[in-house]
Amino acid sequence: MDELAAARRALGKGSVPAGDAYTIEVRRRYDARIDDVWDAVTSPERLRRWLNPVTGDLRLGGKFDLDSGEHGEILRCDPPRLLKVSWLFGPDGDAWPGTSEVEVRLAPGPTGDTEFELIHAAVVEEPLFPTYGPGAGGVGWDLRLLALARLLADGETADHEALEKSPEMREFIRRSAAAWGEAHLAAGGDPKHVAAAVEATTKFYAPDPT
């Protein structure tokens, strides 16, 4: 829960090649040097330990695939400060290119730590937002960034499936969905829509056990 509280979340506006976009934004500090954090977000060996296994031509202009179905192209790579990729979901994503991008920005902190910022921009017409709000992607990123924190702290590899079934992680998901609801409200979201989206997101990521 300390890791959940360490992040600052916001819902904003941006653009992607397909048009106007909304952005989910996460900012936090990692107690690790910038070169270590950069390696963790770009090295295939370490990416699989907190995100998912990745394959492809991992260089500027190259394309990548994650085992979880996301894929895209490396749009910018400025070590060790900025990585930007297109971010498509599943095989149908190729039919609607330019709809989603993820950007990671790093900056060295004053005590050898690293300021971390992740911005995920998705086209306004993206179909999940009306039901789930920013939590659709936000909760997923909170879970992954928790795994990144554990990797940077002690080298622990996340077992996402096992973690997400534990009572502790179900509570983490519930609080993450609520935190994204607060960000949605702060951005001017309708309270009834926000409440429904938080409930739908919680049920999606942590369905009632059967």
From TrEMBL:
Signal peptide: none
Top-level taxon in the UniProt lineage: Bacteria
Domain Activator of Hsp90 ATPase homologue 1/2-like C-terminal residue range list: 31-126
InterPro entries membership: ASHA1/2-like_C, START-like_dom_sf
Similarity-based family: Belongs to the AHA1 family.
UniProt name for this protein: SRPBCC domain-containing protein
